[in-house]
Specification:
180 residues; mainly alpha; 5 helices; elongated
Length: 180
Amino acid sequence: MKRTERTTNGHSRHEQAMTLTAFFHDQLRDIYWAEKHMVKALGKMKKASFSDELCMAFEDHVQETRQHIVRLEKIFELIGLRPQAKKSEGMCGLAREAELIISETGEATATRDVGLIFIAQKIEHYEIASYGCLHQLALTLELDEIAGLLESTLSEEKDLDRELTTIAKTHVNYDAMEEV
């Protein structure tokens, strides 16, 4: 069935594309704020972690997150917008949850590390969802170079998620079981 120039809601395809583009820009601003906020939050999580392996994973991801910010700034440049952050309510909630886990668990314990992995993976899943959706929107909007940049970040977020799972499965969860 051939599509008509007008859609069911009465807007032309051009008007819909502009709405989709505006939404895309809004979500870029959201993840830009989230990434900038995560640099600070990851520093706190690193400082609170007990396992050397988890501490190193957080440290490495701080460096990656800085690269994510640079990529997002490049994306803003490519679309002709200045980088502007929009407070991410989702990330704010996750950051508060991280602080709560730190305050409610014993210092220098594997149990705290379990909690830190738990919240870090929630954060990664938020970022994976955001970058996955942004990547697909960039493809839909035929922004191939931007889609490539988003795909690189998406891949790195997935890598950290897998690394955190490995850390939990290989020792942290078991170490926490031994704490009494």
